[in-house]
Structures are given as C-alpha cells and as structure tokens.
UniProtKB/TrEMBL annotation:
UniProt KW keywords: Membrane, Transferase, Transmembrane, Transmembrane helix
Species of origin: Flagellimonas okinawensis
Membrane topology: Multi-pass membrane protein
Bacterial sugar transferase domain ranges (all copies): 259-443
Entry's transmembrane regions: 12-32, 38-54, 74-92, 104-124, 264-288
Enzymatic class: transferase
EC numbers, comma separated: 2.7.8.31
Localization per Swiss-Prot or TrEMBL: Membrane
Family of this protein: Belongs to the bacterial sugar transferase family.
Protein name: Undecaprenyl-phosphate glucose phosphotransferase
Length: 450
C-alpha cells in the first residue's frame, strides 16, 4: 500500500518513474555507444535520473496542471540529464565512448519520455472527464467574484476531477458554521475552499481546527492580502489562485514510493534475519509461562483513521481489559517474559509484518487504541492530523521521550506536536535518524518501557 487509497491516480507517478528508468536503461543497447563498464553506466544514469527528478519535481503533476508547465519540466529535466550524460565521459575517463551515439541516445530518450508523459497526462484527464474516476468532492465557503469563478472551474473543467457539492454564503443571516461542518462530515467532502476576505479571524481558526481534526484538505482563495504573511503553498486552478494551508511531503508520490520501498526492504530484513529464529524461542517461553496465543492483536487507528489489527508478542496474561486500559508501571497483568520483551521493545517486532502488509510504516506517529483515538480526537486539538500518514513502529515523539503510558495531559499534547512536526517535515534522513535513536534507546533502556 504505497499511498492513501483516496488518491488512485497517484499510482501513475511511481509507475511513470519506473517506465522512464526502463527507457533510459534499455535504450543504451539500441545504439553503439561503446560503454566500457555497462554496470557503472546503468547505476550512474539511474541514480542521476532519480536525483534530478526529485530536485526538479519532475513527477509532481497535479490535476489542474497545464501542458506548458509539463513541457517546461521536461525541458529542465533533460537539460540537466544532457549535462550529466556527457559528464560521465570525463568523470570516469571513457575516451572510446561515441559522442554522436550518446547524442542520439539522448534525443531518443527525450522524445520517448516526453510522448509517454503527455499521453499519460491526456489519458488521466480523459479518465476523470468521461469515467468520473478519482473525483474530489468539494465545498466553497463564501460568495464573491473569486468564489464564483472557482465554482465555474469546478463545474466546467470536468477533466480536473472535482465534484462541486455546495456553496455556503457567510453573509446570510442564518448562516451556522456548525451546520456547515455537519454537511461536510455527512457528505464525505474531501476538500474545503474558503474565501479569505469573508472569513473572520475566529472563523478561520475554526475552519483550520475542523479540517485538521476531521482529515479534510483546507485551501484558501487569496482575496485578502493579509493571508500572504504566512508561508503557504500557492497553486493555480485554471487562472484562479488557491492557497493550501498544509503541505505534507509524503503526499508526493515519489517520497511515498521511496518510504514504502524502504519499509518493504527493512521489514523483510527484520522478518528473515531476526523474527525467523526469534519467534519459535519466544513462542516457547510465552506459552510455558501462561496459556494463550503467542501473538497479541489489537485494533488501532491508522492512515485516514482506518482501523487495522496491530500485532505484538503477547506480554500479558490474557485479560478482558487489554483493549481498554494501557499498561502501567508494575502492571500485574504483565508476565515475567513480558516484562523483559517490553523493556527491550522486542514485543513490537511483529509489527514489521504490519509494515510489510502496508498498514504501518517503520517510522511514523504511533497508533493508539480505538478507545483512546475517540477520546483524544475531541479533547486534543489537531490530534487527528496524525492520521494523514501511516502509523509507525517508532516515531519522533517516542525518541524524544513521549512513549508508553500517557500519565498527564502534557504527554499527549507533546506527542501530538512532535507527530505533526514529523508529518510536515518528513525526510528519509529524519527516518534514518529516528531508527538509529530507537535502536540506541532499546539498548540503553527507557524509563517508560514497561
């Protein structure tokens, strides 16, 4: 499960990357380039293409993107790819390589990838327009010239894939913001577009909090210059400017693909290298001490607040309160072997199966029990933002000391703040840093690992 399932068309982007990598690697054999070390060349162009793609946002094409913008991306990508190709000759001292054949290879790759990219773009537009696939349900808050123009875009540009549901006029005497929120919840609205000029400061805050706590995408129509005092993401729908309040790095299909690829490889290493021999040993020790299953599964909330089964090695005697009450210090339910595996975090290792199956990631916000999610979603501001990404076996909040039992309100507030910071500032380097810190903490032992 690479991506959130609300965005089926995003699968096109990683597939496009794979197709492009096949093109630049296979076309090498159709021209007499005279490569001395084919393996080195393939590694060079593959790694270089991925780096250039990330730098240029080559695969970041939105439903409202125009063809000239795509052509500019293609031009920028291949300018750097051209320089990278000829730099190979000098860097790796390849005097026998044919410069002319390399130029032919470059133009063949350029033409093929450009054609494939444009065809994919057109087919996706046709898919949205004719088959009504990958639709976003939207509402517009406010009524003025800008909002009317945006609604016309939603209604007339079917290829963008937006289904306009309702417009709320803030100037009406009987406007009730709670009724507006109820409509959005009851009609499964995906995105909310607000006119900045018509919102009071208090209403802006209410919409921001509502969107965060209900996993809705909130965007602003910038008809008020004061909104530019914040760093926001600026986009154009046709010729209508729209501002996004939150930009999540893992919404990028390339970033999500990289993270998912790492998750699969890392989980397989742990499952084959550790769980394959550790599981039988722990199974024997767990069953000898107390009757019951070796594995414990618990329903928790994951991405988009969907429920899933989270797996652990059983560390407690079977009890009816397992899904209701968190483990506490000196908890009588914890067995002797359970105390050891909880202290060393070994009990969490079966969650690598969750990672492999796609319900979790190695790093992300820790998933909570359904009971706690229902409780904190109403009592902790922006708590639901944690569910914009997959939950993790470990996370930034955990390595900063906010793991285990929630003893006071500050624990869940700080955990939520760290989780939101992680979501908005994700990088592969940050994931690796968290993993290393988690391993070090497991060896050192943690005060709240009980």
């Amino acid at each position: 499960m690479f991506f959130r399932f609300t965005k089926y068309s995003d699968l096109i982007r990683p597939m496009s990357l794979i197709v492009d990598l096949l093109v630049i690697n296979l076309f090498v054999y159709f021209l007499p380039i005279n490569i001395n070390d084919p393996l080195l060349f393939h590694a060079y162009i593959t790694f270089g293409w991925v780096i250039l793609s990330l730098k240029n946002d080559f695969y970041k094409i939105h439903r409202f993107t125009k063809v000239p913008f795509i052509l500019r991306k293609i031009f920028a990508q291949f300018i750097f790819f051209f320089l990278m190709l000829y730099a190979f000759i000098g860097f790796f001292k390849q005097p026998l390589m044919s410069r002319f054949a390399l130029a032919q290879y470059f133009f063949v790759c350029l033409a093929t990838i450009a054609i494939v990219k444009l065809i994919t773009y057109v087919l996706l537009m046709e898919y949205r327009e004719k088959f009504k696939g990958n639709i976003r349900r939207v509402v517009v808050i406010g009524k003025n010239k800008k909002t009317d123009q945006l609604i016309n875009v939603f209604k007339n540009r079917d290829e963008f894939g937006y289904e306009f549901k309702k417009q709320f006029c803030l100037k009406k005497e009987h406007f009730d913001i709670e009724e507006c929120f109820a409509y959005i919840r009851n009609n499964n609205i995906d995105e909310i577009y607000c006119s900045v000029s018509e919102l009071k400061n208090s209403e802006t805050v209410e919409f921001i909090n509502f969107a965060d706590n209900n996993l809705k995408t909130l965007k602003f129509i910038p008809d008020n210059k004061n909104i530019f005092s914040k760093k926001l993401k600026f986009e154009y729908y046709d010729y209508i400017p729209v501002l996004s309040l939150r930009d999540i790095p893992l919404d990028s299909p390339i970033n999500a693909f990289i993270k998912r690829s790492f998750d699969v490889v890392f989980s397989l290493v742990v499952i084959i290298g550790i769980l394959s021999w550790l599981t039988p040993i722990l199974a024997l020790l767990i069953t000898l001490e107390s009757r019951g299953p070796v594995f414990f599964r618990q329903t928790r909330n994951g991405i988009d607040n969907r429920e899933f089964y989270c797996y652990k090695f059983r560390s407690m005697a079977p009890n009816k309160n397992a899904d209701q009450v968190q483990a506490t210090k000196n908890d009588m339910r914890i067995t002797k072997i359970g105390k050891f595996i909880r202290k060393t975090s070994i009990d969490e290792l079966p969650q690598f199966y969750n990672v492999l199956f796609g319900t979790m990631s190695v790093v992300g916000p820790r998933p909570h029990m359904v009971k706690h999610t229902n409780e904190y979603s109403t009592s902790v501001d922006k708590y639901m933002v944690r569910h914009f990404v997959k939950p993790g076996i470990t996370g930034l909040a955990q390595v900063r000391g906010y793991r285990g039992e929630i003893e006071q309100e500050a624990d869940i507030l700080n955990r939520t703040k760290f989780d939101i910071f992680y979501i908005e500032n994700w990088s592969m380097f940050l994931d690796l840093k968290i993993i290393v810190q988690t391993v070090l903490n497991a060896f050192k032992g943690e005060a709240k690992a009980y």
